Protein backbone atom coordinates (compact mmCIF):
# COMPACT_ATOMS: atom_id res chain seq x y z
CA UNK A 1 0.00 0.00 0.00
CA UNK A 2 1.04 3.57 -0.64
CA UNK A 3 2.36 5.34 2.43
CA UNK A 4 2.16 9.12 2.64
CA UNK A 5 3.81 10.46 5.77
CA UNK A 6 3.34 13.95 7.16
CA UNK A 7 6.04 14.79 9.66
CA UNK A 8 3.82 16.28 12.37
CA UNK A 9 0.27 15.57 13.54
CA UNK A 10 0.02 18.77 15.56
CA UNK A 11 1.99 22.01 15.39
CA UNK A 12 1.67 25.21 17.38
CA UNK A 13 3.51 28.25 16.05
CA UNK A 14 3.65 31.98 16.73
CA UNK A 15 2.59 34.70 14.33
CA UNK A 16 5.50 35.65 12.06
CA UNK A 17 7.37 32.37 12.41
CA UNK A 18 8.56 30.47 9.36
CA UNK A 19 6.85 27.08 9.26
CA UNK A 20 7.82 23.97 7.32
CA UNK A 21 5.38 21.12 6.71
CA UNK A 22 6.93 18.00 5.27
CA UNK A 23 5.36 15.22 3.24
CA UNK A 24 7.11 12.04 2.15
CA UNK A 25 5.73 9.27 -0.07
CA UNK A 26 7.20 5.85 -0.69
CA UNK A 27 5.66 4.85 -4.02
CA UNK A 28 7.45 6.91 -6.66
CA UNK A 29 4.34 8.97 -7.51
CA UNK A 30 4.91 11.88 -9.86
CA UNK A 31 2.18 14.13 -8.51
CA UNK A 32 2.01 15.57 -5.02
CA UNK A 33 -0.49 18.02 -3.58
CA UNK A 34 -0.98 20.27 -0.58
CA UNK A 35 -4.51 21.05 0.58
CA UNK A 36 -5.90 22.90 3.54
CA UNK A 37 -9.20 21.91 5.09
CA UNK A 38 -11.43 24.29 7.05
CA UNK A 39 -14.91 23.71 8.46
CA UNK A 40 -17.58 24.69 5.96
CA UNK A 41 -15.04 25.35 3.20
CA UNK A 42 -13.93 21.82 2.42
CA UNK A 43 -10.57 21.04 0.87
CA UNK A 44 -8.82 23.80 -1.02
CA UNK A 45 -5.73 23.24 -3.15
CA UNK A 46 -2.70 25.32 -2.20
CA UNK A 47 -0.02 23.98 -4.55
CA UNK A 48 0.76 20.84 -6.47
CA UNK A 49 3.85 19.41 -8.13
CA UNK A 50 3.98 17.07 -11.11
CA UNK A 51 7.71 16.44 -11.06
CA UNK A 52 10.91 17.29 -9.21
CA UNK A 53 11.43 21.06 -9.04
CA UNK A 54 8.09 21.64 -10.82
CA UNK A 55 5.20 23.33 -9.09
CA UNK A 56 1.83 24.82 -9.94
CA UNK A 57 -0.30 27.20 -7.93
CA UNK A 58 -3.63 25.96 -6.73
CA UNK A 59 -6.65 27.97 -5.68
CA UNK A 60 -5.14 29.63 -2.58
CA UNK A 61 -1.35 29.95 -2.92
CA UNK A 62 -1.03 33.34 -1.22
CA UNK A 63 1.17 33.22 1.86
CA UNK A 64 2.60 29.81 0.95
CA UNK A 65 5.49 28.42 -1.06
CA UNK A 66 6.60 24.87 -1.82
CA UNK A 67 9.73 22.91 -2.51
CA UNK A 68 10.26 19.62 -4.29
CA UNK A 69 13.96 18.81 -4.49
CA UNK A 70 13.45 15.05 -4.45
CA UNK A 71 10.63 13.03 -5.96
CA UNK A 72 9.52 11.55 -2.66
CA UNK A 73 9.39 14.78 -0.66
CA UNK A 74 7.11 17.79 -1.02
CA UNK A 75 7.42 20.62 1.48
CA UNK A 76 4.96 23.40 2.23
CA UNK A 77 6.44 26.60 3.61
CA UNK A 78 4.66 29.38 5.43
CA UNK A 79 7.12 32.25 5.14
CA UNK A 80 5.53 34.30 7.93
CA UNK A 81 2.72 32.45 9.66
CA UNK A 82 -0.49 34.31 10.36
CA UNK A 83 -3.51 33.38 12.47
CA UNK A 84 -5.67 32.87 9.36
CA UNK A 85 -3.37 30.01 8.40
CA UNK A 86 -4.58 27.97 11.35
CA UNK A 87 -5.99 24.91 9.63
CA UNK A 88 -5.69 21.20 8.89
CA UNK A 89 -3.09 20.65 6.17
CA UNK A 90 -3.32 17.53 4.04
CA UNK A 91 -0.75 16.13 1.64
CA UNK A 92 -1.79 13.79 -1.18
CA UNK A 93 -0.12 11.90 -4.03
CA UNK A 94 -1.07 10.10 -7.20
CA UNK A 95 0.62 8.72 -10.28
CA UNK A 96 0.26 10.46 -13.63
CA UNK A 97 -1.63 7.56 -15.16
CA UNK A 98 -3.53 6.54 -12.06
CA UNK A 99 -6.34 8.65 -10.76
CA UNK A 100 -6.65 7.39 -7.22
CA UNK A 101 -5.53 9.93 -4.66
CA UNK A 102 -3.66 8.86 -1.51
CA UNK A 103 -3.63 11.13 1.53
CA UNK A 104 -1.39 11.55 4.53
CA UNK A 105 -2.84 11.68 8.03
CA UNK A 106 -2.81 15.48 8.15
CA UNK A 107 -1.13 18.20 10.21
CA UNK A 108 -3.29 20.37 12.45
CA UNK A 109 -1.50 23.72 12.57
CA UNK A 110 -2.40 26.38 15.12
CA UNK A 111 -0.90 29.84 14.72
CA UNK A 112 -1.17 31.94 17.88
CA UNK B 1 -15.92 26.12 -12.62
CA UNK B 2 -16.94 22.70 -11.33
CA UNK B 3 -18.96 22.76 -8.11
CA UNK B 4 -19.51 19.68 -5.99
CA UNK B 5 -22.32 19.56 -3.45
CA UNK B 6 -23.12 17.01 -0.77
CA UNK B 7 -26.47 17.10 0.94
CA UNK B 8 -27.23 16.61 3.77
CA UNK B 9 -24.26 17.97 5.69
CA UNK B 10 -25.02 15.59 8.57
CA UNK B 11 -27.01 12.39 8.95
CA UNK B 12 -27.83 10.18 11.94
CA UNK B 13 -29.18 6.66 11.54
CA UNK B 14 -29.75 3.69 13.85
CA UNK B 15 -27.40 0.74 13.55
CA UNK B 16 -28.40 -1.78 10.91
CA UNK B 17 -30.12 0.67 8.62
CA UNK B 18 -29.24 0.94 4.94
CA UNK B 19 -28.44 4.48 3.86
CA UNK B 20 -27.59 6.60 0.84
CA UNK B 21 -25.23 9.56 0.67
CA UNK B 22 -25.53 12.00 -2.21
CA UNK B 23 -23.02 13.90 -4.31
CA UNK B 24 -23.88 16.24 -7.18
CA UNK B 25 -21.63 18.09 -9.58
CA UNK B 26 -22.32 20.86 -12.08
CA UNK B 27 -20.12 19.89 -15.05
CA UNK B 28 -20.59 16.39 -16.45
CA UNK B 29 -17.19 16.43 -18.24
CA UNK B 30 -15.39 14.40 -15.60
CA UNK B 31 -12.77 11.65 -15.78
CA UNK B 32 -13.80 9.94 -12.59
CA UNK B 33 -15.43 10.34 -9.20
CA UNK B 34 -13.93 9.18 -5.94
CA UNK B 35 -15.53 8.62 -2.53
CA UNK B 36 -13.46 9.11 0.62
CA UNK B 37 -13.92 8.55 4.31
CA UNK B 38 -12.43 10.88 6.92
CA UNK B 39 -12.32 10.18 10.64
CA UNK B 40 -12.08 13.18 13.00
CA UNK B 41 -8.68 14.83 12.89
CA UNK B 42 -7.35 12.37 10.32
CA UNK B 43 -6.56 12.26 6.62
CA UNK B 44 -8.82 10.94 3.87
CA UNK B 45 -9.06 7.26 2.99
CA UNK B 46 -10.15 6.30 -0.51
CA UNK B 47 -13.22 4.03 -0.55
CA UNK B 48 -14.28 3.72 -4.17
CA UNK B 49 -13.31 5.22 -7.51
CA UNK B 50 -15.70 5.20 -10.47
CA UNK B 51 -14.41 5.93 -13.95
CA UNK B 52 -16.57 8.16 -16.15
CA UNK B 53 -17.42 5.16 -18.36
CA UNK B 54 -18.65 3.11 -15.40
CA UNK B 55 -22.06 3.10 -13.71
CA UNK B 56 -21.10 1.67 -10.34
CA UNK B 57 -18.42 0.16 -8.13
CA UNK B 58 -18.79 -2.12 -5.13
CA UNK B 59 -16.58 -2.91 -2.16
CA UNK B 60 -18.03 -5.00 0.63
CA UNK B 61 -21.05 -3.20 2.10
CA UNK B 62 -20.40 -0.12 -0.03
CA UNK B 63 -21.79 0.55 -3.48
CA UNK B 64 -21.20 3.75 -5.41
CA UNK B 65 -23.14 4.71 -8.51
CA UNK B 66 -22.51 7.39 -11.10
CA UNK B 67 -24.95 9.12 -13.44
CA UNK B 68 -22.73 11.49 -15.34
CA UNK B 69 -25.48 12.99 -17.49
CA UNK B 70 -27.43 14.15 -14.47
CA UNK B 71 -24.33 15.10 -12.48
CA UNK B 72 -25.04 12.77 -9.59
CA UNK B 73 -23.39 10.02 -7.58
CA UNK B 74 -24.65 8.06 -4.61
CA UNK B 75 -22.82 6.03 -1.98
CA UNK B 76 -24.97 3.23 -0.60
CA UNK B 77 -23.97 1.71 2.75
CA UNK B 78 -25.70 -1.52 3.66
CA UNK B 79 -26.37 -2.66 7.22
CA UNK B 80 -24.69 0.34 8.82
CA UNK B 81 -22.46 -0.13 11.89
CA UNK B 82 -21.20 2.32 14.53
CA UNK B 83 -17.73 1.98 12.99
CA UNK B 84 -19.10 3.56 9.81
CA UNK B 85 -19.45 6.86 11.67
CA UNK B 86 -17.22 9.35 9.86
CA UNK B 87 -17.37 12.14 7.30
CA UNK B 88 -17.78 10.99 3.71
CA UNK B 89 -16.48 13.16 0.89
CA UNK B 90 -16.76 12.87 -2.85
CA UNK B 91 -14.35 14.37 -5.38
CA UNK B 92 -14.48 14.65 -9.16
CA UNK B 93 -11.45 14.70 -11.45
CA UNK B 94 -11.83 16.95 -14.48
CA UNK B 95 -8.24 17.05 -15.77
CA UNK B 96 -4.87 15.47 -15.06
CA UNK B 97 -4.74 17.14 -11.67
CA UNK B 98 -7.97 19.10 -11.36
CA UNK B 99 -9.84 17.67 -8.39
CA UNK B 100 -12.95 19.24 -6.92
CA UNK B 101 -14.15 18.14 -3.50
CA UNK B 102 -17.52 18.33 -1.84
CA UNK B 103 -17.71 19.54 1.77
CA UNK B 104 -18.81 16.14 3.01
CA UNK B 105 -21.63 14.43 4.88
CA UNK B 106 -21.00 13.67 8.54
CA UNK B 107 -22.54 10.29 9.31
CA UNK B 108 -23.37 9.08 12.81
CA UNK B 109 -24.55 5.50 13.27
CA UNK B 110 -26.28 5.11 16.63
CA UNK B 111 -25.83 1.76 18.41
Quick synopsis:
Chain A has 112 residues and is mainly beta. Chain A has no helices and eleven strands.
How would you describe the overall organization of this protein?
The complex is a heterodimer of chains A (112) and B (111). Chain A is mainly β and 112 residues long. Chain A is built from no helices and 11 strands. Chain A has strands spanning 4-6, 10-13, 19-25, 31-38, 42-51, 54-57, 64-70, 73-78, 87-94, 102-103, 107-111. In chain A, strands 2, 4, 5, 6, 9, 10 and 11 form a 7-stranded mixed beta sheet that branches. Chain A has a 4-stranded antiparallel beta sheet with strand order 1-3-8-7, with no helix packed on it. Chain A starts with a strand and ends with a strand. In chain B, 0% of the residues lie in helices and 56% in strands. Chain B is globular. In chain B, strands 2, 4, 5, 9, 10 and 11 form a 6-stranded mixed beta sheet that branches. In chain B, strands 1-3-8-7-6 form a 5-stranded antiparallel beta sheet, with no helix packed on it. The model of chain B has no long low-confidence stretch (mean pLDDT 94). Classes of the chains: A mainly beta (112), B mainly beta (111).
Key features of this structure:
heterodimer, A: 112 residues, mainly beta, 4-stranded antiparallel beta sheet, globular, B: 111 residues, 6-stranded mixed beta sheet, 5-stranded antiparallel beta sheet, 11 strands
